[in-house]
Design the sequence.
């Protein structure tokens, strides 16, 4: 069997036989499909990654089968990329060096639910976890809008926040991620358990420093959630109301998103339900707080167009409110027009609506803002995930510069390197654990520029750089 990736000199038929009894997929069309994620959101990443494929897919069903795959990969020096649901936006699970894709979907058992926590295998779908929790009067403290296809292991390894983060903070904040169990990629793969603050040694490392097999996450009591959609004649009005809802003493939303009217035009399933030509405030609010939400919107000059519980929503055939927030907003536009893309922007002061107005005036007609409110370190923060009509790298860089000139941070969504995007800098603690758990550097190494610079050091020397700093 030849190499599908064209990048390896391994006898893949013989290697597949060594993986038995683990299920494998070797049909090239299917291997190529499982080599992709949502990197096509970015035309830059699309050009870079669309011809990167793995060579073989393994689908272990138990931790022992996973250990067997890792041992075989170590012995044969095969590059490995973990894959959950493949919903990452930056090509995190694209096998850039070719090699073995290990899909975790076969390991999807929910192992334990207790008061305030859920423990599940890494391949469990978050929608299944939320469904199981509902019977106990709980829900996940946060989950991405991709919960129907995204795995909990992929969320912890690749994600950062989600629906619920307005109430409970980002995934990395104390108490949200309770414990992670991860396997090393060695001759005799070992289990490592990370608890408390130590979970950050593995969280958001894009699967390059260990194979997560079990996740324990915080849960919260569930509420009778009402999807609320309000419209405003100006973006500024919708933004100010979004901030007011996020910070109100009498309202406890788990999501609040503000969407430019031009983006709302790309939501066909809301047509006829919302005032035309208006910007949108979409929020998830407990039933007991809806009256306060309605009053706040009216006081700020808006109009409440929809307040729906789940049953009403299904009758009206309207999607979940969270399908109009975070990266789902971008997806709604991309469904109609693939020339759109996006960026990830940090807002320096979420209370400063004037700064947003002045920025918007400078951005140009090819940038349509969309803000999400979340809680970071207990304080309300805002991020902008604007729709950008892509006309080339130079224009994208000019847009980034406009944001920077106004004091906003750009977390590049068009890079396949873990050090760019959300982290901005090398995480030497991640890389020290990579050296410990993946001594041959076989796990998704192409995604870290800094790994190349430190891979010959000891874990302790790599860790020391976290303190002293090191330019890249
Ligand atoms: C429409 C849309 C909306 C989104 N909304 C959000 C959001 O609200 N919040 C958010 O944080 N993200 C969001 N994302 C990004 C993505 O959906 C989430 O990060 C998701 O949880 C990833 O899960 P997955 O199973 O698809 O992971 P994958 O894409 O399969 O993997 C993600 C990364 O984790 C690694 N990985 C997977 N499983 C393991 C494992 N067991 N051990 C070690 N490494 C592993 C992979 O190698 C890869 O690097 C969104 C994406 C889309 C397309």
Sequence:
């Amino acid at each position: 069997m030849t190499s599908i990736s064209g990048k390896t000199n391994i006898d893949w038929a013989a290697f597949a036989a060594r993986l038995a009894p683990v299920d494998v997929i070797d049909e090239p069309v299917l291997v190529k499909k499982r080599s992709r994620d949502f990197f096509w959101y970015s035309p830059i990443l699309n050009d870079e990654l669309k011809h990167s494929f793995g060579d073989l897919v393994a689908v272990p069903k138990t931790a022992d089968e996973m250990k067997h795959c890792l041992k075989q990969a170590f012995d044969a020096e095969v590059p490995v990329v973990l894959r959950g649901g493949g919903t990452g936006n930056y090509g995190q699970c694209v096998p850039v060096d070719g090699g073995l894709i290990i899909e975790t979907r076969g390991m999807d058992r929910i192992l334990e639910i207790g008061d305030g926590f859920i423990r599940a295998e890494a391949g469990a779908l978050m929608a299944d976890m939320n469904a199981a929790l509902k019977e106990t009067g709980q829900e996940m403290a946060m989950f991405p809008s991709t919960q129907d296809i995204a795995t909990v292991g992929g969320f912890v390894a690749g994600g950062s926040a989600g629906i619920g983060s307005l109430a409970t903070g980002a995934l990395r904040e104390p108490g949200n991620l309770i414990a992670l169990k991860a396997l090393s990629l060695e001759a005799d793969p070992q289990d490592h358990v990370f608890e408390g603050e130590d979970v950050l040694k593995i969280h958001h490392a894009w699967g390059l420093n260990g194979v997560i097999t079990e996740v324990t996450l915080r849960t919260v009591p569930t509420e009778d959630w009402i999807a609320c959609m309000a419209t405003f004649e100006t973006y500024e009005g919708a933004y100010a109301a979004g901030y007011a809802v996020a910070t109100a003493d009498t309202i406890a939303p788990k999501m609040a998103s503000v969407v430019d009217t031009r983006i709302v035009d790309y939501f066909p399933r809301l047509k006829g339900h919302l005032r035309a030509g208006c910007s949108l405030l979409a929020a998830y609010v407990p039933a007991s707080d809806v009256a306060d939400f309605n009053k706040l919107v009216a006081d700020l000059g808006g109009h409440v167009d929809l307040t729906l519980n789940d049953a009403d929503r299904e009758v009206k055939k309207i999607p979940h409110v969270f399908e109009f927030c975070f990266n789902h907003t971008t997806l709604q536009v991309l469904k109609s027009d693939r020339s759109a893309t996006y960026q990830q922007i940090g807002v320096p002061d979420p209370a400063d609506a004037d700064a947003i107005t002045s920025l918007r005036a400078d951005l140009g007609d090819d940038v349509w803002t969309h803000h999400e409110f979340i809680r970071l370190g207990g304080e309300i923060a805002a991020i902008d995930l604007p729709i950008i009509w892509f006309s080339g790298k130079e224009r994208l860089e000019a847009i980034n510069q406009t944001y920077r000139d106004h004091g906003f941070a750009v977390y590049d969504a068009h890079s396949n390197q873990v050090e760019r995007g959300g982290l901005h800098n090398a995480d030497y603690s991640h890389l020290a654990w990579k050296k410990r758990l993946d001594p041959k550097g076989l796990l998704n190494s192409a995604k870290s520029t800094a790994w190349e610079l430190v891979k010959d050091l000891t874990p302790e020397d790599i860790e020391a750089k976290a303190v002293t700093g090191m330019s890249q």
Notes: The chain has two domains: 1-222, 225-410.
